[in-house]
Amino acid sequence: MSNEGKKVKVHYRGTLDDGSVFDSSYDRNEPLEFTCMAGQMIAGFDQAVRDMEVGQVTDVRLPPEEAYGPRRDDLVQTLNFEQLPGAEELNVGDRVMLTSPTGQPFPATVVDKDDKTITFDLNHEMAGKTLNFRIELLEVED
């Protein structure tokens, strides 16, 4: 029986191939709720939950294409300080929220800075990475 279109509640632990944990609903003691296959989750996670049964635990390994996509060099942008007043106060490694010309906010990471310019990486921090999940299906609402 498919869970597609149904509200589900799961616990999960996400790890990288080196075993490091990048996220865990278990650690927060807060299950994740979402509508299965509604585009609220990364594609591979949705696919894994779609055919699970309540109480089932599954392990999935998602290549970048099924997770946050590949890293894109065109999403690394360098701006002059005049284009972004206040940017001279930022430091390499800072995560900031920028705003698109249409007003849409999006996260960016400062990856380089010199006397005149600052470079932002607009890729998702998990882009280009293979992600491993242990998923436990707790509830399904019809």
UniProtKB/TrEMBL annotation:
<keyword id="KW-0143">Chaperone</keyword>
<protein>
    <recommendedName>
        <fullName>Peptidyl-prolyl cis-trans isomerase</fullName>
        <ecNumber>5.2.1.8</ecNumber>
    </recommendedName>
</protein>
<dbReference type="InterPro" id="IPR001179">
    <property type="entry name" value="PPIase_FKBP_dom"/>
</dbReference>
<keyword id="KW-0963">Cytoplasm</keyword>
<dbReference type="InterPro" id="IPR046357">
    <property type="entry name" value="PPIase_dom_sf"/>
</dbReference>
<comment type="function">
    <text>Also involved in hydrogenase metallocenter assembly, probably by participating in the nickel insertion step. This function in hydrogenase biosynthesis requires chaperone activity and the presence of the metal-binding domain, but not PPIase activity.</text>
</comment>
<dbReference type="GO" id="GO:0003755">
    <property type="term" value="F:peptidyl-prolyl cis-trans isomerase activity"/>
</dbReference>
<dbReference type="Pfam" id="PF00254">
    <property type="entry name" value="FKBP_C"/>
</dbReference>
<keyword id="KW-0413">Isomerase</keyword>
<dbReference type="GO" id="GO:0042026">
    <property type="term" value="P:protein refolding"/>
</dbReference>
<keyword id="KW-0697">Rotamase</keyword>
<comment type="similarity">
    <text>Belongs to the FKBP-type PPIase family.</text>
</comment>
<dbReference type="GO" id="GO:0005737">
    <property type="term" value="C:cytoplasm"/>
</dbReference>
<feature type="domain" description="PPIase FKBP-type">
    <location>
        <begin position="5"/>
        <end position="90"/>
    </location>
</feature>
